[in-house]
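Morning run. Coffee first, then this:
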Amino acid sequence: MTNKNSNKGKLIVFSAPSGSGKTTIVRHLLNQEALNLEFSISATSREKRGTEINKKDYYFLSASEFKNKIKNDEFLEWEEVYRDNFYGTLKTEVERIWAQGKHVIFDIDVSGGLRIKRKFPEETLAIFVKPPSIDELKIRLKKRETETSDKINMRIAKASAELATAPLFDVIIENDNLDKALHEAENLVANFVNKTH
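And here it is:
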């Protein structure tokens, strides 16, 4: 990815433990036309869930396709979350959005978010969405009814580790009141995208 283009967009990263409400916040921000945001669609090697659509929810790749793209340095960041279960951001995805003159918004896991911040420290606003508590997180994940209790327990264990990384982000939004969190996120992003270096 080249840095030649001086009017390239900003990168807005939202990371959080699963069930914190980051996806709800990101969807809200995408509906605010004044922010000029476009969603970065991640690539994954996991199976589609429910009504998910290729190239809309994710770029669904096989594990071997994903590994090939890693070898060819096609990712801005990537991670093997569980064995042969990869997630990542394709460089072409960011370039596609910047070419439209828009800012990129990511709904991405903690380590991916921090990797983007490290690569583009000036252009990135990294926001961590914190759930009110681990107990509340467990309740939210159970309500979804999309995963087994083993999977939920894995996510809860991962959430504890992820919460420890919160101070590494630019800002922490505590999502104990959704309206308040949406308002806070909107103000943060608006200030950041309108800021000139």
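Residues 178-193 form the longest helix (16 residues). Good start to the day.
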